Q: What sequence folds into this?
């Protein structure tokens, strides 16, 4: 390893420099936004390409989120696309992850963003610079994976664009250690071939859990899907094959009363298939929580390939005991139980992390958090 080197840049001699951590969809748009505001962006990306979560890896990596092999996006390309860069006409309305990554690559190429990205470079620490009280600047320590060089640079601001699919959340259940089978998180799932002729329990009824349960049906002997509260399951498509999200974002719907929208949502969700009949109906009304999107789960349940089960109570050597005291034997368990908190806690100094914890989420459907200490004027 080479000796640390520090590069100081006088902001009076040039544009303000902004460090951007991550070159996924947020990182790419952050680079473009900085350029539009006449700032100098420097983006640090630990992988060798843009795309973040959508840059598929066959092997799971610690600290990096990834889709699995057969992932298909559940947002239509028109609703997903950036307003200043329409998706290619030949891309599918709901494309596989390869097309999503291709779109981000085209976006970076079109706006010349890659020249501002340092690939194969991971940020190891962010802390206030020595002159922070006077300048508001930040010290960034990073490592180049190719050369193993560790360097330090000073920036006027830092934008963390690493997403929240990085550190998996593994719930605690009694008896997990005595279970003879394999326990893993959906973060590490890639494809169903290794589960051939096995009985698999998937815990979690969110998008990842349902997608994995459906994918497992290709090779698994039996798939169980465990849920604590149920969920509203909706299709990607609406009437006449129109993408559901395109219809949901019309001015007409935004003008209607919320009470009517909740009723209408539940009505059309039950047209997809009856949630009460199959034990999926949640306690909350429609639109009060984020729905789960799946076109295939109803068919897999009707065919018996996926069997819905209540929440896990505890593990045995060969399976699990459920909340209804039913015992089922399984070979493997996959937890699709979400991710832990925002990942930049690992690189921020302690006092900044404490300030971040005091920052509250803005209560929107897609949670937004304001971290005023991260980017300074």
A:
């Amino acid at each position: 390893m080479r000796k640390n080197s520090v590069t100081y840049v006088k902001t009076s001699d040039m544009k303000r420099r902004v460090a951007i951590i991550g070159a996924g969809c947020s990182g790419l748009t952050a680079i473009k936004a900085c350029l539009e505001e006449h700032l100098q962006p420097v983006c640090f990306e630990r992988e060798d390409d843009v795309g973040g979560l959508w840059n598929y890896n066959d092997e799971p990596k610690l600290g990096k989120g990834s889709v699995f092999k057969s992932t298909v996006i559940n947002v239509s390309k028109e609703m997903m696309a950036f307003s200043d860069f329409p998706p290619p006409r030949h891309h599918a309305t709901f494309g596989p992850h390869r097309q999503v990554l291709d779109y981000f690559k085209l976006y970076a190429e079109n706006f010349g963003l890659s020249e501002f990205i340092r690939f194969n470079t991971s940020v190891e620490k962010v802390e206030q610079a020595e002159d922070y009280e006077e300048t508001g600047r930040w010290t960034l320590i990073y490592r180049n994976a190719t050369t193993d060089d560790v360097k330090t640079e000073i920036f006027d601001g830092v934008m963390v664009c690493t997403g929240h699919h990085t550190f998996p959340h593994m719930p605690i259940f009694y008896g997990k250690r005595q279970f003879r089978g394999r326990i893993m998180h959906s973060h590490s799932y890639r494809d169903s071939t290794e589960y051939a002729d096995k009985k698999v329990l998937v815990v979690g009824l969110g998008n990842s859990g349902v997608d994995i349960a459906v994918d497992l049906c290709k090779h698994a002997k039996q798939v169980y899907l465990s849920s604590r509260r149920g969920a509203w399951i909706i299709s990607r498509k609406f009437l006449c094959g129109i993408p559901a999200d395109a219809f949901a974002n019309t001015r007409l719907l935004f003008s209607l009363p919320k009470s009517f929208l909740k009723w209408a949502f539940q009505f059309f969700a039950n047209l997809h298939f009856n949630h009460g009949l199959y034990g999926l109906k949640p306690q909350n009304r429609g639109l009060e929580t984020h729905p789960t999107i799946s076109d295939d789960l109803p068919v897999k349940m009707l065919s018996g390939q996926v069997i819905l089960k209540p929440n896990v109570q505890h593990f045995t050597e060969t399976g699990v005991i459920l909340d209804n005291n039913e015992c089922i034997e399984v070979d493997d368990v996959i937890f699709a139980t979400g991710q832990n908190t925002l990942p930049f806690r690992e690189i921020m100094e302690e006092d900044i992390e404490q300030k971040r914890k005091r920052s509250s989420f803005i209560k929107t459907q897609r949670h937004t958090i304001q971290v005023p200490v991260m980017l300074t004027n």
Notes: The chain has ten helices and 20 strands. Confidence is low (pLDDT under 50) at residues 1-13, 371-377. The two ends are 35 Å apart (CA to CA). The first helix runs from residue 25 to 36.
